[in-house]
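seq:
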Amino acid sequence: MDILIIGLGVIGTTYASVFKEAGHNVEHYIREGSNKEYISNIEVTLLDGRESSKGIQVKKEYTVNPHSKKEYDMIFVSISQGKIANVMEILRKEAFKGTILLCCNLWYDKQYLDKIMQGYDYILGFPVAGGCIKIKKEELATKAELDCCLFDHFMIESKNKTTISNYEAISNLFKSSNIKLEKPYDMLEWIWIHMAINAAVISVIGKNGDINDSITSVHKLMNSLKLLATTIKTIRETTKIAASRGINMKYYRNELWVYKLPAQLSAIFMKRMFATNNLTRRIMELHGNIDDLLYICNSVYKEGKINNVSAPLFYQSLEDITRRITNK
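struct:
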């Protein structure tokens, strides 16, 4: 399969590396003037969860191939802060063609999303991976190091909810890369719920720790039954905000049942999960893009206020974080 990855970000590069290993042609579009424009190789440290639920640590080098044509079977787009319109402007300007796999945090409704994506066939997905990328400028070269983790599954829109012509080919791409596909009832609604849950977690971490020291703050949460119980209560609030968008929550019971248990009991389950699951712990530690975290929180916050949803724990936590950031 011919694949174009937009940019050289964590998610795109993580999946690019495994697609390439599976024998697919993978190229990158990197905009002129980007600090990643001259990166040709990336040192990758991957906690790989495809063969083991605990994850297998792998070190490898990934060679970045720049785009060489205008038409691809699939264009992989993962962009932070919901900046899809910016990416689509680039795709149109460069006249790239291909089915777009859009896999990032989105708080847009379907009508607005269709408007942004006009002229392109697209399918929604969501990565189950995370990490951070470090760039080092040296005299003769720009070097990059990617520290990431990858789970054995990927969330994707079901075939009956999309009109793309190469759904089977994209499914086979993931199958060839040893990644299973999970298909929620509605992919866009699932993303909203996922963002709502993440907003709750981020708000508790940010209020009770240092948002600029994500690893220490995350460890504080994972080791505290009290903070985890507060997180559960906050998730109940933020999922009500997601529901206020018209979601029928009964279709997402499998994702939400644990948050309906008594908070202390759910906290025990979560603490045990973080203690025993390397992959889950690592993805929490590595997610430190402050702007993207705030985009998630602010999207949910604004929706809750507009729809008059009662969420005192969430609102207060985010307002505290915002004050601390503003006063710096």
